[in-house]
Hints:
Radius of gyration: 23 Å
Structural class: alpha/beta
Strand order of the largest sheet: 2-1-3-4-5
Helix content: 40-55%
Strand content: 5-15%
Number of strands: 5
Largest sheet: 5 strands, parallel
Amino acid sequence: MPHLFSGLIATGLTAAVLLGVGMVAAHLEHTTIVSSAPELFPLKKQGLAFQRAAAHAPSVLPLYGSSELVIPPVPERASVFFRTAPTGFQVSPVGAGGASSLSMLQKIGALGSDLRAKKIAISLSPGWFLRTKWDGYKGNFSLMAASEMTFGSALDFELKRDIASRMLKYPTTLEKSPFLAFALRRLASDRWLDRVVFCALWPLGKIQTAILELQDHFAAFNYIRRKIKPAAQCHPKLPDWPQLILTVSGSKSTDEEKLTKPSNLSEEKIPGHGDAEFRNGMNASAGWTDLELLLRTLARVHARPLLLSMPIAGDLYDRKGVSRSARENYYARLRALVQRYHFTLIEFEGHDEDTAFLYRHQSHLTSKGWIYYNRALDDFFHERVPRG
């Protein structure tokens, strides 16, 4: 008995110390948000500590996206453009190359109530919906976000079940966590016995999530201590959007001029020749399922999202024989889906054939593209109707 009593005291003291250190780290994350918000680094997208701090900061707008957040490194990128809060807020980017709706929704579902009534922006890539397979999910998988979403209480059981079914399509992401894989299989099943088993696993899942959360706080504390620099001074300055658009529209570097002309498409195909293949690929894409799961997640956590869709590189698709009317199917379907959830969407369809809007005909924004994005973000944050 004395040994048992001593063990309980030691365990209690250890737990108290860990909890205290976690609280200190969380406080540090919130007090340094002005410095960390504009930065994009692996710990930020893999963990939740910095994302949660941004969610609680009233003058920070989280922006979830993919490789366009880092490529190309132009100064007009939202995180750089709003770094000094010229209009009263900063943008906090979260994402990396290959990110998609499925990886984003896990982070948003994990944050849960932290995003209630919070304005957030999400950048969509047309490539998610024009391919039958997307290969970037594994590189953006976050065990912590997946665990928190799975064993958290923010999402209802039916939504979790549908998300689990999609996550199980990528079994390699779960190889390092057989416990989570087992729980997801129980969650995705329609059998009542599997549901009972999942409920029985729930306490263990909460313990695993708590351990991962502590690890995240320790990593964040270490990162802030070693990497975070003092924040830049704020410089209030109302942008002259028409002048900025005029400036970036009229200036194009020699490299950009070369990159806007694809060398392997010297001859245009017959207009409409590729329409059937384009529509078949779009209709078969699982990206639409993932987007609807993302929209359901946003609605469930009561976030206030702005969805920004980069335009299709229309001039490239013209050369492939895909007509503008076929591409309109993408924009129309996207609008119809988002409107069902009453969220704000800017799809930039008017720039479908604007060669100065996208970099290298990919889902990467040029300086001009980012200025249009930034104007929409600024309108949204300040309760104005976002302009495309």
